[in-house]
Design a protein that fits this description.
With 154 residues, the protein is mainly beta. The protein contains 1 helix and 9 strands, in the order H-E-E-E-E-E-E-E-E-E. It has a single domain, classed as Beta Barrel (OB fold (Dihydrolipoamide Acetyltransferase, E2P)). 9% of the residues lie in helices and 37% in strands. Strands 7-5-4-8-9 form a 5-stranded antiparallel β-sheet, with no helix packed on it. It has a 4-stranded mixed β-sheet with strand order 3-1-2-6, covered by helices on one side. Strand 4 and strand 5 form a beta hairpin. The chain is globular and about 50 Å long.
Length: 154
């Protein structure tokens, strides 16, 4: 029981039904972010009136000075990779047909960012790499409305 696990296959499982219900909501700021992404194909954040920082995803309060962020700000679909990882196996430890690159992208003009897929070969991805969002043709108001990010051609 106290030995480190090296595989998710070694974990124990709950048999039967778990009597829990969950409803996740994105909140007021998140709802606006996803609505604008769905309806207009745009990224929006909020700006702090005191320190001027813009945040994406949108925040109700500034994490730096705790002021209420009520100014909406339009942001570009571009950003910079700040960190990334390469996934070669799925959650059941089966090899993926193609490796997936998952990155944190700092959106231009904002603090924070988005964790999403990069559509590029792992050896082509680097910290500092410029990327742009590729939007889904049919959007539903979810993070998957961004299909992936792709490298920006310079």
């Amino acid at each position: 029981m106290f030995e480190p696990k090296t595989s998710n296959q070694e974990l124990s499982a709950w048999r039967g039904n778990i009597p829990v219900e969950n409803l996740y909501t994105v909140g007021i700021a998140g709802e606006r972010f996803f609505r604008m992404l769905k309806e207009k194909g745009k990224l929006v954040g909020t700006r702090c009136p005191a320190c001027g920082k813009a945040f994406v995803p949108a925040r109700m309060y500034c994490e730096a000075c705790f002021e209420k962020c009520n100014e909406e700000v339009a942001l570009p679909l571009t950003g910079e990779v700040t960190t990334f990882t390469v996934c070669r196996r799925d959650l059941d430890e089966r090899p993926l047909a193609e490796p997936q690159v998952i990155a944190h992208i700092r959106i231009d003009g904002a603090e924070g960012g988005i964790v999403h897929r990069i559509a590029a070969a792992p050896e082509k991805v680097s910290v500092g790499m410029r990327v742009e969002a590729v939007l889904a043709k049919k959007r539903t108001g979810a993070i998957t409305d961004i299909e992936h990010f792709r490298p920006v051609k310079r």
